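User: I'm preparing a small set of examples for a lab meeting where we compare how different chains pack in three dimensions. I only have the primary sequence for this one, and I'd like the structure in C-alpha cell form so I can line it up with the others. Please keep the answer compact; I'll paste it straight into my notes.
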Amino acid sequence: MIELVKTTSAIRLTYLQALLDDANISFFVFDQHISMLEAGIGVFPRRVMVYEAYFLAAKTILSEAHEFYND
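Assistant: Understood. Below is the C-alpha cell output for the 71-residue chain.
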C-alpha cells in the first residue's frame, strides 16, 4: 500500500473518502482509531492509503479536486 494523503481534518478526510468512493478506488484509512488515545484533539494525522495499482488514478482524482496535499 502507498500513502496517498495525510490529514488531521476529519471533514477533509470525509471529503477525500467520498472522492475515492465515487471513483470506485479501494482505499484504507490508517491511524483512524488513534483519536481514542489522543482524547480527540486531532494531533495525529490519518493516512489515506491505496494499493499501488490505484495510486496514479487516485492521485489524478485528488489533483483535479485540488486535494492532493498533506496538511
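A couple of notes for your slides: The chain has three helices and three strands. The chain has one domain: 2-64.

User: Perfect, thanks.
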